[in-house]
# Entry
Amino acid sequence: MTSKKNYRAVSIIVVALLCACAILDSDKSGFAQQGEFVPPPSVPRNQKQGGSVLELPTSPGRQSGETQQLPQLAPQRGQELTLPSRQLTRQPGYEQVTVTITDQQGRYVTGLQKSDFRLYIEGQERPIEFFRQDLNTPVSVGILVDTSGSMDPKLPQAKAAIAEFVNDLNSRDDVFLFAFSSSPFLLQPFTVNHAAVIERLNLLYAQGETAIFDTLIDGLLMVRRGRWDKKALLIVTDGQDNASAWGLAEVVARARQMGVLIYSIGIGNPNNIARPSIAFGFGGFGIIPGDNDAVDARTLETLSSETGARTFLLRSIGDGTNLREDCAAISRELREQYTVGFVAPDPGRGGYRNLRVDVPARPSDRIRVRKGVEVGGGTESASVDPGRGLH
# Structure
């Protein structure tokens, strides 16, 4: 009987100790729920779980009374980012242009200084208020890929070339991706996660017609949201516009206002006239369809020359080597340019002003810059319906 009583006493003591431990654990949990810091799971800041797109906030948010800091981007070799002062950019008539200089052999000319340049508006020299060599300047880039029916056999090579283009960009460049056929579609909003852009290329498939101008308008509206002051579009197409509501004049007007570089790669016969024709024969007459392999080279070159960019033309896609080389050339050129800022005279008058840039010490070099600037009128164009949304 005595042993049973002793066993019962020991059991009661053990149970009491276990209950005490459970109470202590619950107290700790309660303290954590009442405000004690508990480390969260290891998830990169600003990245959603489940494979979602990496999106960086445009401005710091607030949580629990503390300012959320933007993630630090990896440091880059070379120059630090140089921006014009806020006081300068707020001056009426202030504009920036991108200047590309090549020698007689087509090599980029770098290392020039502000004093080497002369800038003229309507033939009158203006002082250069801001100067930057863009050796490592980040760029906001929009990629516009034609996915109309005729692109079907060319899409594999186009995907590979664009993937290389994205990989060659500065890691700080923010990029978005449009696909377009009968209308434009935003496949990837702005992101610095270049791997996400490349992954979205797998969604490209060919069908429909070709709405080049509508896509460029939407691309210009989109690139305006980019974080960097230097902005560029790359359009890859094999055809001519046959589905847009907008026209070339509206695209040029908006591009003039925004100062966006519009690079283009055209695949096909560089003949901008591919209209059906009438043929006569012994059996009467019939309609001969236009050249389905014709690319509107004249329109692409107009857009590039107006904005200070370049157009690359390929008669055929081949194995994609030339397309990859052209994409690499565009990526490289963005690192070999200059940015020049100035204040246009009489900004209250508004309107389009012709622009010229010279380097007197290098008269044989080729200088490429946009043809002019649109002064005044803000960022919206009267020729573009501001209520038109992005697809």
